[in-house]
Write a structure and sequence with these properties.
It is built from 14 helices and 24 strands. With about 425 residues, the chain is an alpha/beta fold. The model has no long low-confidence stretch (mean pLDDT about 95). Bound molecules: uridine-diphosphate-N-acetylglucosamine.
């Protein structure tokens, strides 16, 4: 078990290059399993969730090699169509493999998914959509048993713009018979990234990034080379690190167009932001004001994944900020830990009211999920004295070398094994 030990209170100054996006690499690696040939994927971040995804690919029979941040997948001979319950429980996004395995093998056996404990996270939209495409699905002993002939293109309206369901349908539809149209599709940039990769493999996907995605089935998908988009949530986390410590950080590779909701909230809170073609820089103006209200929404609304880092920031801002979490019902688990550090936060259902305090104090705190863990690291960077953050396996699911990146900007942070 490791912990992060952080001596807070130092302004951070420096420059970083943002890692590839976790939420883009996972569906793209799943898509690579459908290629009749070799795929070369660049800019894959070194994360636990990526390691787990590689294990899934290997169990399906793919040859996988890793050269630095490049992953090479040879899926010319798939020998498996099963994902163990253990792997599914550890990583909810492995449900994305369902569409890809069904396309490649016409059958799939996958455990019920797990993931960060941030709410119920059902998969009903995935199941309902795949059934419409001709998949028969039964649940037996904790596994989904799925069978199909050639998948059928059809019109699918999502009741909620689920990211995972949109991706799963895209993966199932690329080789389906006929045209699939998804309405009320999720519009996240990672969906556009997946579509770009699929099209490089020979698929015909139009409209990704808008709420109507049209997929025309093709007979063959070949290997392709692709570079994963930058991680917008990680980029925003490091910008917040600059603001919460009263410093200045430049994040190279970050795309401001992917981060408009958060950048406008950061400006409201007193950040000076400079955007250019190479990335984004945030400089503190010396004052940190509260943010009027943050309501998490599907993209291009305010991302649920950056809600908790913003709450750490609001904890030390002047004035009162209100947060409303509309995406996941259990995404306030960081609140009790922030309160242990001296924050003044009251939660009522899906809303939290944060009254800014002058300074947080170092404390021993625990991460219970990925982004909540990042929020605790940010709080510790600004706090007076020493903090230890445990439960950092969660943080490692989404941040590549978080301590190295922050230390390069002057943070006193180290990982210790206990
Ligand atoms: C993805 C992201 C995650 C992000 C989330 C919302 C990945 C690997 N993860 O997760 O970081 O926080 O989008 O932006 O890309 N829902 C249903 N039924 C379903 C599917 C979803 O009710 O079949 C609900 C969920 O419970 C949740 C909401 O829809 O309340 C959003 O879920 P979804 O967009 O599917 O998120 P994920 O794809 O799991």
């Amino acid at each position: 078990m490791s912990k992060l030990v952080i001596d807070g209170g130092k302004p951070l100054y420096g420059e970083l290059r943002v890692q590839g996006a976790k939420n883009a690499v996972l569906p793209i690696l799943a898509a690579a399993a459908m290629a009749e040939g070799e795929c070369v994927i660049h800019n894959c971040p070194g994360l636990r969730d990526v390691e787990k995804t590689v294990i899934i690919l290997e169990r399906l029979g793919c040859g996988v090699q890793r050269e630095g941040n490049t992953i090479i997948i040879d899926s010319s001979v798939l020998t498996g169509c099963r994902i163990d319950e253990g792997l599914m429980r550890e990583m909810r996004s492995s449900i994305i493999f369902l569409g890809a395995i069904l396309t490649a093998c016409s059958k799939a056996e996958v455990g019920m998914p797990g993931g960060c404990p941030i709410g119920l996270r059902p998969i009903d939209l995935h199941i309902k959509s795949l059934r419409r495409m001709g998949v028969s699905i039964a649940e037996e002993h904790g596994y989904l048993q799925c069978r199909c002939g050639r998948l059928r293109g059809c019109d699918i309206h999502l009741d909620f713009p689920s990211v995972g369901a949109t991706e799963n349908i895209m993966l199932a539809a690329v080789k389906a018979d006929g045209v699939t149209t998804i309405t009320n599709a999720a519009r996240e940039p990672e969906i556009y990234d997946l579509a770009c990769f699929l099209n490089k493999m020979g698929a015909r996907v139009r409209g990704a990034g808008s709420s109507v995605v049209v997929i025309e089935g093709v007979d063959e998908l070949h290997g392709a080379e692709y570079t994963i988009m930058p991680d917008r949530i990680v980029a925003q986390t490091y910008l917040i690190a600059a603001l919460i410590t009263g410093g200045r950080i430049r994040v190279n590779g970050a795309r401001p167009s992917h981060m408009q909701a958060a950048l406008s909230a950061l400006t409201e809170m007193g950040a000076r932001i400079r955007e250019d073609e190479e990335g984004v820089e945030l400089q503190s103006s010396g004052t940190l004001r509260s943010v009027h209200i943050i309501r998490t929404m599907p993209y291009p609304g305010f991302p649920t994944d950056i809600q908790s880092p913003f709450m750490a920031l609001a904890s030390v801002a002047e004035g009162t900020s209100v947060f409303v979490e509309n995406i996941f019902e259990n995404r306030f688990r960081h609140v009790d830990e922030l309160v242990r550090m001296g924050a003044d936060i009251k939660v009522e259902g899906r809303s939290a009211v944060v009254r800014g305090v002058k300074q947080l104090c170092g404390a021993n705190v625990e991460a219970y999920e990925l982004r909540g863990g990042a929020a605790l690291v940010l709080a510790a960077l600004s706090a007076e004295g020493r903090s230890t953050v445990s439960g950092i396996d969660y943080i490692d699911r989404g941040y590549e070398d978080i301590e190295g990146c922050l230390a390069r900007c002057g943070a006193e942070i180290r990982r210790v094994c206990t």
